């Protein structure tokens, strides 16, 4: 259906590591990608939400011994946390036999329980990879497709829905599943409506620096509780906490992270935005576009890149600062309007951080210089540039 750009990286990791964990929200495409690889490799696939597949692991040691030499895909593995200690033993036994090829592809919805169990039992034996929703290059990079992706978000079933109404219905159901099932399973004791108010408040504050006291006051919770649930949404890869760049440059800097609902389609569902026409007239349109572009640029960046924003009290600001693996710093300003000229504060901020390259991402299609070493370019072009470093 879609060629996921992460696939070559995943294939390479499977060739060099005993266990790889592919993490991401539900319905993001983890199982589809894993099944494609499983078919190619003759792998064994187990869905641990199915009673029959869980029963096969009643004697996990014996079952996994019978799969020696084959890749085993374990889906929704957070449903069987006791399995991790068995996986550790199997991996170590095979390593002693000189077999270091891929043994397990572990899929999970990035629950804290999954991360904790795997980090304790499989430390030094597993590598993690996040699968994000569809990005602009994966859907073709054309303006029409990018606009639809921005409006509907990157969950495949939302993006591919027959029309905007059905897409919105899917996203509303997705949110309800997390609120009524997944979050309570992870220990949430708050009423569903309180959690929904918190999530909706985050949507209204898209791209704003974290103000715990303001959030807590708006949803009627204490600050500690708000921080705990924010951390949970970040762990589930549903909310991004973008950290500030805070090197000592002798200026007063913003030090609170900026929060974004990561998928633009979920953001719009939380705000009741049904289509592109409504979105373009909504007060959140600028912040929505900013978050959408940030997520796409991060998805395109090479492994081991680092991501920050930069802001001084005097108004100098960079929306996204990418530090590439070779330590070059690329600064991005994100503009929704037709005029992509950056603010004076962007130029000052680039000087402050000693940016090696400066770009303005805007909805147009042309690439052209803006002066002072800055270029304007479309999102797809920016992603291609970032992906090649």
UniProtKB/TrEMBL annotation:
SUPFAM superfamilies: P-loop containing nucleoside triphosphate hydrolases. PANTHER family: CONSERVED PROTEIN, DUF4143 DOMAIN-CONTAINING PROTEIN. Residues 17-138 form the AAA domain. InterPro entries: AAA_14, DUF4143, P-loop_NTPase. Residues 180-336 form the DUF4143 domain. This is AAA+ ATPase domain-containing protein.
């Amino acid at each position: 259906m879609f060629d996921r750009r992460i696939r070559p990286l995943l294939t390479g990791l499977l060739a060099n590591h005993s266990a790889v964990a592919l993490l991401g929200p539900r319905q993001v495409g983890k199982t589809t990608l894993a099944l494609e690889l499983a078919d190619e490799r003759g792998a064994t696939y187990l869905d641990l939400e199915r009673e029959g597949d869980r029963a096969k692991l009643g004697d996990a040691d014996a079952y996994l011994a019978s799969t020696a030499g084959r890749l085993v895909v374990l889906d929704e593995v957070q449903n069987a946390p006791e399995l991790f200690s068995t996986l550790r033993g199997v991996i170590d036994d095979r390593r002693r036999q000189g077999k270091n090829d891929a043994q397990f592809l572990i899929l999970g919805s990035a629950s804290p329980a999954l991360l904790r169990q795997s980090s304790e039992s499989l430390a030094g034996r597993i590598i993690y990879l996040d699968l994000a929703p569809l990005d602009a290059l994966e859907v073709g990079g054309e303006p029409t497709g990018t606009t639809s992706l921005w409006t509907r978000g990157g969950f495949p079933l939302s993006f591919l829905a027959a029309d905007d109404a059905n897409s919105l219905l899917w996203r509303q159901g997705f949110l309800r599943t997390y609120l009524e099932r997944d979050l309570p399973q992870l220990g949430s004791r708050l009423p569903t409506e309180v959690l929904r108010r918190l999530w909706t408040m985050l949507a209204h504050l898209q791209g704003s620096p974290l103000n715990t006291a303001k959030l807590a006051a708006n949803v009627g919770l204490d600050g500690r509780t708000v921080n705990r649930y924010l951390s949970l949404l970040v762990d589930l890869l549903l909310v991004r906490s973008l950290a500030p760049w805070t090197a000592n440059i002798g200026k007063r800097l913003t030090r609170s992270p900026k929060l974004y609902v990561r998928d633009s389609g979920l953001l719009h569902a939380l705000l009741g935005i049904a289509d592109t026409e409504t979105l373009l007239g909504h007060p959140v349109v600028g912040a929505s576009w900013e978050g959408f572009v940030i997520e796409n640029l991060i998805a395109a960046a090479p492994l081991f890149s680092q991501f920050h924003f930069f802001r001084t009290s005097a108004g100098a600001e960079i929306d996204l600062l990418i530090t590439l693996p070779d330590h070059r710093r690329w600064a991005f300003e994100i503009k929704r309007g037709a005029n992509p000229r950056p603010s004076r504060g962007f130029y000052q901020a680039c000087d402050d951080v000693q940016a090696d390259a400066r770009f303005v991402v805007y909805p147009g299609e042309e690439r052209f210089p803006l002066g002072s070493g800055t270029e304007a370019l479309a999102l797809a072009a920016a992603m291609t540039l970032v992906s090649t470093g």
